[in-house]
Amino acid sequence: MIKKVIYPGTFDPLTNGHLDIIERSAALFDDVVVGVAASPSKNTMFTLEERVAMAQQAVSHLSNVSIKGFSGLLIEFVKHEQADILIRGLRTTIDFEYEFGLTNMYRRFQPKLESIFLTPTEEFMFLSSSIVREVAIHGGDIQEFVPEAVAQAIQQKVQQA
Question: For residue 70, which of 76, 81, 82, 93 sits 20 to 30 Å off, Cα-Cα?
Fold first, then answer.
């Protein structure tokens, strides 16, 4: 039985913590879809197309991972992709409380959908996209926090601003 999972997020930008979750998911499941959310309510640094392109570069070494942008409700994207499982990354207990509430809502719409929570490896537990953006905006070195192509894209954005 092929298990298709979706790892959704805004990924603005994709961090090494996200990549850690993606790589570990790829080792566990046959088909991993990274769903890059349009998130129009968020003031993103990168467009949806830019975020999809950066994620594609970052996972090019993983043959069972695909990147797909989406807008609208996550649950509709899950149905469209005919996925069985959602992968959610958790760093803190605050993340858990938020995701736990969402998981129960998702079950109301799609009762057979399962959520699996993964924590990043210890070196990435503190890492978030907003921290990376903030460090970059203030001239800090982000090389160890994001894939190389992402670091270059962030530096270009910061220089353009």
Answer: 93
| Distance from C-alpha of 55 to C-alpha of 143, rounded to nearest angstrom | 16
Active-site annotation, residues: 18, 42, 91, 129
Percent of the chain surpassing pLDDT 70 = 99
Name the pTM for this structure. Answer: 0.93
Assigned token pair, 83: 């996925």
- Known binding residue 18? Answer is yes
- To the question of whether residue 86 is assigned a binding role by annotation, the answer is no
- C-alpha–C-alpha distance, residues 21 and 18, integer Å: 5
Tell me the angle at which helices 93-109 and 74-81 cross, rounded to the nearest 10 degrees: 60
The CA-to-CA distance between both ends of the chain, in Å, stands at 49
Classified as helix, coil or strand, 17 is helix
Q: Yes or no: say if 67 and 55 are a contact pair by the CB < 8 Å rule.
A: yes
Map out the domains of the chain as residue ranges.
4-160
Does 128 appear as a known binding residue?
yes
Q: Which CATH class is domain 4-160?
A: alpha beta
- Token representation of residue 160: 């353009």
Confirm whether residue 66 is marked as ligand binding.
Answer: no
Say yes or no to pLDDT of 101 above 90: no
